[in-house]
TrEMBL record:
It comes from the Archaea. One of its GO terms (molecular function) is hydrolase activity. This is DNA or RNA helicase of superfamily II. Residues 79-222 form the Helicase ATP-binding domain. Keywords: ATP-binding, Helicase, Hydrolase, Nucleotide-binding. Residues 312-440 form the Helicase C-terminal domain. InterPro entries: ATP-dep_DNA_Helicase (IPR050615), Helicase/UvrB_N (IPR006935), Helicase_ATP-bd (IPR014001), Helicase_C-like (IPR001650), P-loop_NTPase (IPR027417), XPB_DRD (IPR040699). SMART domains: DEXDc, HELICc. It holds the Pfam family Helicase_C.
Length: 440
């Protein structure tokens, strides 16, 4: 029996016995399975005392990998849990040092490792951290394609090249691993034959429950520690306060009119809003139903009125004055509100349109206290190294608990100061429900 790697699959030649997870490929007269089943197949063959020739892995040779990191107690617990099977997902709050767990996993494996991250910013951050190994660090992205014993890639590039890279590494490290659960990205894990895999995230669960597939791909969640368990000693203590403001009379009138338009459409079509999938029914109808299109537009306008009310900006002015000696990050959902805040209070803004050089310039000035506040839409939720801040203000957001925890994590850093997260919501609107849902 002979095992080989072919374009993201394991081919098994010359076998007469049943091998789990495989199907017969008539074109090549072999049993075949996806690359990530390589470890399972080897375990089965070894346990069954079946002799075989293993030609699957063509590993990039690696020098001795050592570090001088001293892990914190919880980080060591997470690493030990992973080392027991060398598979699984570690969940640590933002700011708790999950990168160091990944680096130590690479050192313990002491062989070629492929690190996969969502953004080029995180590629650069990982490259900087991995320099402690004193070995060349490779990059496999749209801007550079260099393979080294330790190579960093984005999810997009890993997805595009998994078929040819899938047998070159002993260990996969997935940062922000909740991205892996998407329909396309999960193929990265499926097409790699690496026997060891580690997922890292601060927010394991997804609203669509697709995270459940990570159990099959990586071994599931093996370690998690909550923010509350680390505050005081490793992360700053924090408070959360929800501030409710009133819409102006004009805003209230416009909000109620738009809500009524949307509700009337639901009543006329007998659609009950139980979750996002029900709203998608209305969106699908809007392509050829003018009333559905008006209903969707009205709902979106109502939400934007609630999220961007004038009273929120008045309340923000009070908080900025109250915390004028603090470090403040203001979070919004819509770019229009980012620019309104930036123009009204002369606060630097970061959105998805902000180029990398300008973003780094703003964050550098925030770090050295030239700027004491920045305002951003959703681009600071993950994937960017945000300098220390101790005040967060949420002006608007989605109902995602992941987004909420990510924003909270942006102000929880090792510090003697207590962090404060304020959430400003509009009274008598659906935003109250959204706020409650994301904290659950």
């Amino acid at each position: 029996m002979r095992l080989t790697f072919e374009r993201g699959t394991i081919a098994i030649e010359g076998n007469e016995s049943t091998v789990p997870h495989t199907t017969w490929d008539e074109q090549t007269d072999t049993n075949r399975t996806l690359g990530f089943r390589y470890r399972d197949i080897k375990n089965h063959l070894d346990a069954s005392d079946i002799e075989y020739e293993d030609d699957v892995l063509d590993l990039i040779q690696s020098p001795e990998l050592t570090t001088e990191i001293e892990l914190r107690g919880y980080q060591q617990q997470a690493l030990n849990r992973w080392l027991s099977e060398r598979r699984g997902v570690v969940v640590l709050p933002t700011g708790a040092g999950k990168t160091y767990v990944g680096i130590e996993a690479i050192a313990e494996t002491n062989h070629s490792a492929f690190v996969i991250v969502p953004t080029l910013d995180l590629v650069d951050q990982w490259k900087s951290e991995l320099e402690m190994f004193n070995v060349p660090i490779g990059e496999y992205t749209g801007r550079e394609k260099t393979l080294k014993p330790i190579t960093i890639s984005t999810y997009d590039s890993a997805y595009n090249h998994a078929e040819k890279l899938g047998n070159r590494f002993k260990l996969l490290v997935f940062d922000e691993v909740h991205h892996l659960a998407s329909e396309s990205y999960r193929q990265i894990a499926q097409l790699f034959a690496a026997p060891f895999a580690l997922g890292l995230t601060a927010t394991f669960e997804r609203e669509d429950d697709k995270h459940e597939v990570l159990g099959e791909l990586l071994g599931g969640k093996i370690y998690e520690i909550e923010t509350a368990e680390l505050t005081g000693e490793y992360l700053s203590e924090y408070t959360v306060e929800r501030i409710t403001v009133e819409l102006t009379p004009k805003e209230r009138e416009m909000y109620d009119e738009n809500v009524e338009t949307f509700r009337n459409y639901l009543i006329s079509t007998d659609i009950t809003m139980r979750g996002p999938e029900d709203f998608q029914k209305v969106v699908l109808r809007s392509g050829n139903d003018p009333r559905a299109w008006r209903a969707v537009r009205s709902r979106n306008e109502a939400r934007q009125i609630a999220y961007s009310s004038e009273s929120k900006l008045d309340e923000l002015a009070i908080l900025l004055e109250q915390h004028r000696d603090d470090r403040i990050i203001i979070f919004t959902r819509y770019n229009d509100l980012v620019y309104d805040v930036s123009n009204r209070f002369f606060i630097p803004s970061i959105t998805y349109t902000t180029d990398k050089d300008e973003r780094q310039h703003i964050l550098k000035r925030f770090r050295n206290h030239t700027y004491d506040a920045i305002v951003s839409s959703q681009v600071l939720n993950e994937g960017i190294d945000v300098p220390d801040a101790n005040i967060g203000v949420i002006l608007s957001g989605t109902g995602s608990s992941r987004e909420y925890r990510q924003r909270l994590g942006r102000i929880l850093r090792p510090s003697g100061d207590t962090a404060h997260l304020y959430e400003i919501v509009s009274s008598g609107t659906g935003e109250i429900r959204t706020s409650t849902r994301r904290k659950s």
